[in-house]
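In the design runs reported in the main text, the only information available to the sequence generator was the tokenized backbone. The following block is the verbatim input for one such run; it is reproduced so that readers can re-run the procedure and compare outputs position by position.
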């Protein structure tokens, strides 16, 4: 696979955003809310939550029932309400209200796995990391970049095969590509901007 060509082609199709330009706390909480929830639902819930509670201190002091009402649309909203309140409390009390820019510290927070932690590092701090969700896992295997069974394995392999200068772009580019063209079902191969690089496409020729 021609990695540089792949990334360049996807950047042309989906111009990436400004990494590190978003509030790390908002990235963290929104990503926790996004687990097993559609993006549009997550966005609405996060907007409602942050319109009332903007800082770790404010969210840490919030009534959990109020948090539940604000994020009710997301999956497992009761569990997530408890988690985001506890995350806010830890960040406010242990880190002076600042989200740590360290993956090990992030992974110690309730409900935070590697994908969430790496999203915070990429989108909140602009660091060169690879955040692997279901889209990235699927696309990476379909394009033959990796041959893996889990997102954790995919992250490890992608770190080996993709130059570090491309790492922070992987999540946004692969997610947008996976939602738009290379979907779980109903792939739009005739509209694919990287079809000549795709092993599946070459097999069918």
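Verbatim output:
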């Amino acid at each position: 696979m021609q990695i540089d060509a792949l990334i360049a082609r996807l950047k042309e199709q989906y111009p990436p955003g400004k990494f590190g330009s978003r509030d790390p706390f908002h990235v963290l909480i929104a990503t926790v809310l996004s687990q097993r929830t559609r993006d549009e639902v997550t966005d609405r819930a996060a907007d409602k939550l942050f319109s009332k509670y903007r800082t770790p201190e404010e969210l840490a002091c919030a009534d959990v029932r109020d948090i539940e009402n604000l994020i009710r649309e997301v999956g497992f909203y009761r569990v997530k309400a408890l988690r985001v309140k506890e995350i806010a409390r830890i960040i406010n009390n242990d880190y002076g209200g600042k989200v740590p820019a360290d993956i090990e510290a992030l992974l110690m927070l309730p409900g935070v796995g590697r994908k969430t932690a790496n999203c915070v590092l990429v989108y909140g701090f602009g660091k060169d990391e690879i955040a692997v969700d279901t889209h990235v896992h699927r696309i990476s295997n379909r394009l033959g970049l990796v041959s893996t069974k889990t997102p954790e394995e995919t992250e490890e392999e992608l770190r080996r095969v993709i130059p570090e200068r491309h790492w922070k772009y992987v999540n946004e580019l692969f997610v947008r590509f996976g939602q738009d063209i290379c979907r779980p079902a109903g792939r739009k191969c005739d509209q694919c901007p990287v079809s000549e690089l795709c092993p599946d496409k070459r097999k069918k020729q």
